[in-house]
Amino acid sequence: SLSDESAIGVIGKQGGSVVINAKDINLVSSLIKGGTFLSSGEANSQSGNITFNATGTIDLDSSNINNSTEIGNAGNININAKSLNFSNNAKIDNNTFGVGNAGNISIKATDTVSLNTGGISLFCQSRSKPWFLVGWNDVNSSNCSKVTQEGYLAM
Q: What gap in Å lies between CA 130 and CA 50, rounded to an integer?
């Protein structure tokens, strides 16, 4: 569990990866951050992946899993669990805002995904459109939750 504004960050020219393996994963008011930033990234920079593997439930409450870049390629976000629950504006973001490619988001839940004031977003400003790979038996969405995917070629 991570709580009380805890953070794990792997940011740099070649960002590292975060892998968490557990029965249950609980993030409350916390941040998991990967990617590269303008001051450290180059067009060919590659950030690492963020991977959560839980045999039980992943609960995201007021938390953010973010693997975004300003310059360079964002890594992937991989979520594997029995159930995945979003609450209190929890979100998963994988974006690129400059030269480079956004990473992909893969969510595999053998039971349910519950979005309650939470969301998943992918945005790519240039090159390739990222993709979602999702698989779950049931999805519950309420209270302004959203899943978005956008991409356009910057001129």
A: 15
- Low-confidence stretches of the chain (pLDDT beneath 70): 12-13, 36-43, 122-155
Task: Give the per-residue pLDDT at 124.
Answer: 61
| Cα distances (angstroms) measured from residue 9 to each of 18, 19, 64 | 8, 12, 12
- Burial class for 21, CB neighbours closer than 10 Å (0-12, 13-18, 19+): exposed
Question: Rounded to an integer, what distance in angstroms lies between the CA atom of residue 70 and that of residue 67?
Answer: 11
pTM of the model: 0.81
Phi-psi group of 82: left, alpha or beta (phi > 0 → left; psi -120 to 50 → alpha; rest → beta) = alpha
Order of strands, edge to edge, in the sheet holding 105-109?
Answer: 18-22, 50-54, 77-81, 105-109, 132-135
**16-41 pLDDT, tens digit each:** 789 999 999 999 999 888 876 655 55
- Please report, for residues 1, 10, 129, 147, the alpha-carbon distance to residue 133 in angstroms, rounded to integers and kept in the order given: 26, 24, 13, 13
